[in-house]
Recover the amino acids of this structure.
């Protein structure tokens, strides 16, 4: 039977490589691939796909509009849905140093916090964990289930023979956003079938919804769980949550200012063990998972590493000297380190090196970069299940180290003219000051 994929949220950070992967790397497995997004068109993936795709621009809030959009696309007999849409909007963080100070204070009081949580009723725990989920961008949001229900209902309306639904989530499933201070049962590595953080959490609601609809409507489900994502979506704006692009732009600005590559987080984040996931790895595991129904899989791209192990090599790629965290407990805010002239520095770099026309704010989300460097506890993704289910051994990790993974992404950003090659960047004269 022919397979036709519908990728929802395929222009975002996690899902942007799914359409190219299905068309370029899955051979004749898929007869057609549709991308459903509010702003997708025929040019969105034109340079990244060897076969044509079908753009379906529609509003996930409107079931009737979805039905009409799918009918306009020929009422495709969709068999596979890949879901990477997210209704939650990221919250703007306050001052990073203040928030890290609060976290450090909480850590110092962990015995008392644990004792309090142990005797707290569920309503209090739901408030504590629900607040943390909202701050992490994955608070309970019924709109996620509304969106999924609208798409599933629209597919049923046009008679699509849906067989599998692949859901993208992430490390907050494991309590990564809480850590051992706020969740006494926190543990790392993360195992897909035995590590489960507390709710409320939008991921848990989405998982339950998909599994219930799968049982009712006769399709299977899969879930993929990435770590910090390195990816280049087709559209960049100030709301883009791209850890890799933000880090690359931050480093490029410091390079142009003739400064060291300063790690903007605290010591705890510098030394904690973690993984990275590329958008391409997410797509690869998502497509592969469909042969193993009703299973969740981690999808890290490199072995566990700490930033303290990789920072010197990353700085070396930029031709910079590395600088360890300036403050043991609090670190620094990336916006403060980049300085008030960062936007002007970036504009001059764009002009001098003929870069793509992205404003600094579309590339360097200071808030998200600081949030990414707040995880001061190990958050390691186990790969045993991938291996047990037969994922190609030479592909379990795309890269041999975190440093190699980051540098490969930096080189891609140079090729795409997002950042200049560091060898072409000459440091600008800087006024004498006490800045590092």
């Amino acid at each position: 039977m022919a397979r036709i994929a519908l990728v929802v949220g395929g222009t975002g950070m996690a899902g942007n490589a799914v359409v190219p992967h299905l068309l370029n790397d899955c051979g004749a497995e898929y007869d057609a691939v549709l991308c459903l997004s509010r702003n997708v068109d025929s040019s969105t993936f034109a340079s990244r796909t060897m076969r044509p795709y079908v753009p379906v621009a529609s509003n996930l809030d409107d079931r009737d509009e979805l039905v009409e959009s799918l009918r306009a696309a020929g009422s495709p007999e969709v068999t596979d849905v890949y879901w990477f849409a997210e209704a939650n909007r990221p919250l703007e963080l306050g001052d990073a140093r203040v928030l890290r100070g609060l976290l450090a204070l909480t850590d110092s009081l962990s015995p008392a916090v644990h004792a309090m949580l142990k005797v707290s009723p569920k309503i209090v725990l739901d408030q504590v964990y629900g607040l943390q989920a909202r701050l992490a961008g994955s608070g309970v949001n019924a709109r996620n289930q509304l969106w999924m229900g609208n798409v599933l209902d629209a597919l049923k309306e046009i008679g699509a023979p849906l067989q599998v639904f692949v859901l993208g989530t992430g490390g907050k499933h494991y309590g990564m956003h809480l850590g051992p201070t706020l969740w006494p049962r926190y543990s790392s590595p993360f195992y897909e079938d035995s590590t489960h953080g507390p709710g409320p959490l939008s991921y848990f609601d989405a998982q339950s919804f998909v599994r219930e609809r799968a049982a009712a409507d006769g399709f299977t489900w899969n879930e993929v769980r990435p770590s910090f994502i390195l990816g280049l979506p087709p559209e960049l704006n100030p709301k883009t949550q791209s850890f890799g692009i933000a880090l690359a732009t931050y480093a490029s600005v410091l390079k142009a200012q003739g400064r060291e590559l300063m790690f903007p987080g605290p010591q705890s984040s510098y030394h904690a063990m973690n993984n990275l996931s590329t958008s391409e790895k997410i797509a690869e595991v998502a497509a592969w998972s469909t042969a193993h129904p009703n299973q969740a899989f981690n999808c890290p791209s490199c072995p566990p590493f700490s930033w303290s192990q990789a920072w010197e090599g990353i700085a070396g790629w930029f031709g910079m000297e590395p600088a360890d965290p300036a403050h043991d407990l609090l670190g620094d805010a990336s916006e403060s380190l980049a300085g008030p002239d960062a936007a002007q520095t970036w504009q001059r770099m764009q002009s001098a090196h003929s870069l793509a026309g992205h404003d600094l704010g579309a590339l360097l989300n200071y808030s998200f970069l600081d949030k990414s460097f707040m995880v001061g506890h190990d958050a390691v993704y186990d790969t045993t299940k991938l291996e047990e289910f037969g994922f190609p051994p030479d592909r379990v990790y795309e890269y041999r180290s975190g440093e190699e993974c980051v540098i490969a992404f930096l080189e891609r950003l140079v090729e795409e003219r997002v950042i200049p090659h560091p060898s072409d960047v000459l440091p600008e004269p800087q006024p004498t000051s006490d800045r590092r």
